[in-house]
Each structure stands twice: as structure tokens, then as C-alpha cells.
Amino acid sequence: MQRLFSFRDLCFCVCLACCIFRSRCSTELQCCRHGVFVLCHVLQVSARLHRHCCSKLQAACFVSQPHSYSLIAGQQHRCFRTSYAAARPVLQFKLSDIGEGIMEVTVKEWYVKEGDKVSQFDSICEVQSDKASVTITSRYDGVIRKLYYDVDSIALVGKPLVDIETDGVKGPQEDVVETPAVSQEEHTHQEIKGLKTQATPAVRRLAMENNIKLSEVVGTGKDGRILKEDILNFIARQTGAILPPPKEKMTPPSVPTPAIPKPVFTGKDHTEPIKGFQKAMVKTMSAALKIPHFGYKDEVDLSQLVRLRSELKGLAESRGVKLSYMPFFIKAASLGLLHFPILNSSLDENCTNITYKAAHNIGLAMDTSQGLLVPNVKNVQMLSVFEIAVELNRLQTLGAAGQLGTADLTGGTFTVSNIGSIGGTYAKPVILPPEVAIGALGKIQVLPRFNHKGEVVKAHIMNVSWSADHRIIDGATMCRFSNLWRSYLENPASMVLDLK
């Protein structure tokens, strides 16, 4: 008996040394205890002596690792009654990275509760980020022991989502939960595997109904995704059934189209020199682009002017003159230039002097067979509306015949372009140097408008677009001139007061 005690003491010393130098965690300490337990049974030592050895081992471990005392004491009773191999590990199921840089999600719905049994690919919960909703599925077979979040709580990527007590299958080491032990410090740079959804919930349900493991099915979808057809083909291979081939799409027979011969183009390009009035236009427009243009647009109600012209048209024709609206437009412009002479001026090439023109030589842009020509009516400030109409008839006749002379085409101080005679409504007129202003008149349209009583009435509306040299003419001046010009046309009788 003494010999056995000596051998027992030797075993105790060996186990004590292992505990002091190698016992770093509760698992290794349990291994040392089990070693003592096995040796004691082999040597058929009494239970009293076995408890004596373990108490000494516990005291020795407390000396080397004081912080493990509560851990050892709390596990002593369980360790001697349950073997380590028979324990069911509890795994921490962590929320893995779901991609797109998402670091947190909101738990929208739990599909399980504590105590529920789950299998691989069973839905655990649904989470929602600011980009998408994702269904989280289980990677283990086991029992749900703990839910870490409530509904509408914020779950962090890489943090535990649920605890699963597995059926003897141990997951990754960092997922093991030591319930009574103090958890070790997690690694700061551990890799979080992305959660890859292999199949949609409908496909998973079909696989579960037929007792098929998705791991045994080869997916033919994008990135190996398992489709419904993959499950059906797998069932067919297992049962020997033959699936019907996919229906072929019936395409109607094509009707041959007769070949249409392509036409042969025989035209040739030709070149001609720029000359005459067109050459002068190139020179004038090139100089005009150097002028900073200021644009202003407005609309004019010509209802009263339309009635006045209708009354005077017959009288003018009796005198052999065609009376259009243009004589009224030109005369109203001349009356406005008397109040705003800066618009009837010119600027020298060095931009150092402004010359105010005494004569109102108002030009009229004409579309002729020779191109765009701008003859002008001389001294409009001295002419009546009827005299302006006579001069316009003369210029239009010469322009149509291509007989406009140099005197008619030079010396202009202000220009009006009647684009409305062709059909336009708005325009962006280009100033003709050395002039500093130009107006473009749109077509007259019959449109509904409100009168001073708030009633909808028929009105004859014309749009006008002005351009001015912004180097010497500001927007306010152009606006005031346009308002005065419009007042003469909207109330033609007012022109009588200013006629000379």
C-alpha cells in the first residue's frame, strides 16, 4: 500500500507541474483533472484519496492563476459528472459582412425564438440596411439558446446575432461560447466571411420539402446560385423520372422581302465665291459678333392698332399706297428715340466717343433674291405715317427688282426686322455696326387675354425682341424705350400728341 501511495504521489506531482506551466484556460485545467481522475481509477484509489488530489490540484492552480479560482470552483461539480467529449458546444452565430460597405443593420423580424430547433439554411431573421433587406439563414443544426437583439434594434456586423447549441458539430473556434467562463479578448483583425445566399427562400423550401441538402446540388445560376430547375433536375436523377423538355418557341416563317435597288446619286458639289451683298454681310456680321449684346423681350397688344389700320387701309389704297403695320412700328420707334437718343447713336472703333445721330434713319430688314438687305427710311422724325408707308412701298419695289441703290442701303441709325412676315414669333437680332440697337418683330397672333375687368377677351398679340450694345446701353434704358414704344402701339391715338 505504501508503494501505491508513492506512485500516486509521483502522478500528482506530474499533473501539478502540467497545471502550473501549461494550464492557461479552463479547458486545459479540465484535461489535467481528467488525467488525475483516470490515473486514480487505474490504480483503484479510493474516492476520498481522489478528492484529496483534486483539492490539492485546485489549490495549486489558484496559486499560479488566482483569477481562475472562481472558474474552477464553479466547474468542479460538473466536470466530475459529465465528460468533456459528451458536452454540446454553444456557438456564437455572428452577423457577417453582407457587402457594399454596410456596417450595421436593423433587425426587422425574428423567424425563431429561444429553444427553437434549426437546421442549416433555415431562416433566422430578416435584417434591413439603407440599401436592401436580407434574410439571414443558419449555418448549423442545433437549438437557439439566445437572441442578442430585439425587433427594430441595430445589429453590428461582426457581433453575435444568436447563440446556437449544436448537435456535437463544433464550428470555428471564435464562435464557441464558454457559458460559465470569462470570454477571451477577440482578435481585432479576424476575417468575417461574407454571407452568400445560395438560393432563394422558395428554392430552400422546395429542397426542404423533398429532404434535399443544398450542399449536394450543383447550382447553375449566377455565381453558383441554386435555381428551382436545379432542384427539380436533382429529384429527377434520384427518382429516375424524366422531365419534359422545354417548349420550343414557334417562330412564324419569315417572308422574304424583295430587294429594292438603291438609287444612284449623281449630284456633285460645287463652289462659288462670296461676292456682292453677301460679301458685305460676311464683313458686317463678323464685326457684329464683337459687340456684347443685351437682349430684352416683351409682348404688345395691337388690338386697337388692328382696328385703326382697318379703318385707314381703304383710304391709303385710294391714294395708291399699301398701308401695313410697319409704318406705325417705325413711327413709334422714332417717337421713342426722341426720348432715348442713346439708342440712335454710334460708337467709334476705339470705344472712346459716342456720336448721337440727329436724323432717324430707320432701317428695315428685307428678304430679297440677293439675300438679306437693310434699306432705311431717311429722316423718319420728319415724316407722317402715310409718308413712311409711301417710302416703304418704294423700297420694297426696288428690293424685289434687285435695284436698291447705295444711298438706300447706307446711313442707317436704327433697325427694325419684321421676322413675323415670314412666320417667326421670337428672335435674337444681331446689331448692324455702327448702330447700337435693333428690334425684331414677331407675327401677330389672336390669343385670349384678360381685360381690366378680369374678363377673357380676344387680343391681337405681337412679340418683340430687342438687342442693344451693352457697352453703352443698360437694361433699364432698353426696357423704358420698349415700354414707351409699346404704349404708342397699344394706344395709337397717343401718337397724335407727339407728332410734329
Automatic annotation (TrEMBL):
Cofactor names: (R)-lipoate
Please give the catalytic activity noted in the UniProt record.
N(6)-[(R)-dihydrolipoyl]-L-lysyl-[protein] + 2-methylpropanoyl-CoA = N(6)-[(R)-S(8)-2-methylpropanoyldihydrolipoyl]-L-lysyl-[protein] + CoA
- Pfam families cross-referenced by the UniProt entry: 2-oxoacid_dh, Biotin_lipoyl, E3_binding
Write the signal peptide boundaries. 1-25
Q: Does the keyword Signal apply?
A: yes
- Keyword Signal appears in the UniProt entry: yes
Q: Where in the cell is it found?
A: Mitochondrion matrix
- The primary location reported for this protein is mitochondrion
> Which Gene3D superfamilies does the entry link to?
2.40.50.100, Chloramphenicol acetyltransferase-like domain, E3-binding domain
InterPro entries according to UniProt: 2-oxoA_DH_lipoyl-BS (IPR003016), 2-oxoacid_DH_actylTfrase (IPR001078), 2-oxoacid_DH_E2_comp (IPR050743), Biotin_lipoyl (IPR000089), CAT-like_dom_sf (IPR023213), E3-bd_dom_sf (IPR036625), PSBD (IPR004167), Single_hybrid_motif (IPR011053)
GO terms of molecular function: acetyltransferase activity; dihydrolipoamide branched chain acyltransferase activity; lipoic acid binding
Enzyme Commission (EC) number: 2.3.1.-
GO cellular component assignments? cytosol; mitochondrial matrix
| Keywords, ordered alphabetically | Acetylation, Acyltransferase, Lipoyl, Mitochondrion, Phosphoprotein, Signal, Transferase, Transit peptide
Q: Where is the Lipoyl-binding domain?
A: 90-165
List the PANTHER family hit by this protein, alphabetically.
Answer: DIHYDROLIPOAMIDE ACETYLTRANSFERASE COMPONENT OF PYRUVATE DEHYDROGENASE COMPLEX (PTHR43178), LIPOAMIDE ACYLTRANSFERASE COMPONENT OF BRANCHED-CHAIN ALPHA-KETO ACID DEHYDROGENASE COMPLEX, MITOCHONDRIAL (PTHR43178:SF5)
What the protein does comes down to: The branched-chain alpha-keto dehydrogenase complex catalyzes the overall conversion of alpha-keto acids to acyl-CoA and CO(2). It contains multiple copies of three enzymatic components: branched-chain alpha-keto acid decarboxylase (E1), lipoamide acyltransferase (E2) and lipoamide dehydrogenase (E3). Within this complex, the catalytic function of this enzyme is to accept, and to transfer to coenzyme A, acyl groups that are generated by the branched-chain alpha-keto acid decarboxylase component.
Name this polypeptide is given? Dihydrolipoamide acetyltransferase component of pyruvate dehydrogenase complex
Question: What is the originating organism of this protein?
Answer: Cyprinus carpio (Common carp)
